[in-house]
């Protein structure tokens, strides 16, 4: 399945024993939460939404959140 306009830096972890896990920034200006939720439902993914996150995680706060998310 493809998501329209999904950038290369969007974060989708594939976990064989847990399914798909998506990290989404609530200020994403390229993908709507509706698009992400639709995709998540179709592939039984879990969504984590970062408050003040954007499509491109680049600030110190966002990168720290991303690192913690990856290690969780």
Entry keywords:
single chain, 72 residues, 2 helices, 24% strand, flat
Overview of the structural elements:
There is one protein chain. The protein is an alpha+beta fold and 72 residues long. It has one domain. Helices cover 32% and strands 24% of the residues. The chain contains 2 helices and 3 strands; from the N terminus they run ββαβα. The protein has helices at residues 33-43, 60-71, and strands spanning 11-15, 19-25, 46-50. The chain has a 3-stranded mixed sheet, sandwiched between helices. The model has no long low-confidence stretch (mean pLDDT 82).
Summarize the structure.
The chain is α+β, with helices and mostly antiparallel strands and 72 residues long.
Topology of this structure?
Blueprint: E1 11-15, E2 19-25, H1 33-43, E3 46-50, H2 60-71
Parallel strand pairs: 2-3
Antiparallel strand pairs: 1-2
Helicity range: 25-40%
Strand order of the largest sheet: 1-2-3
Count of helical stretches: 2
How far from one another are the termini?
26 Å
Major beta-sheet overview: 3 strands, mixed
Q: Judging from the principal axes of the Cα atoms, what is the shape?
A: flat
Average pLDDT level:
82
What is the helix/strand order? Answer: EEHEH
């Amino acid at each position: 399945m493809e998501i329209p306009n999904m950038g290369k830096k969007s974060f989708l972890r594939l976990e064989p024993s847990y399914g798909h896990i998506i990290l989404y920034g609530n200020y994403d200006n390229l993908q709507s939460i509706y698009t992400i939720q639709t995709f998540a439902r179709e592939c039984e993914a879990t969504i984590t939404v970062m408050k003040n996150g954007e499509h491109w995680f680049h600030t110190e706060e966002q990168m720290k959140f991303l690192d913690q998310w990856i290690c969780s």
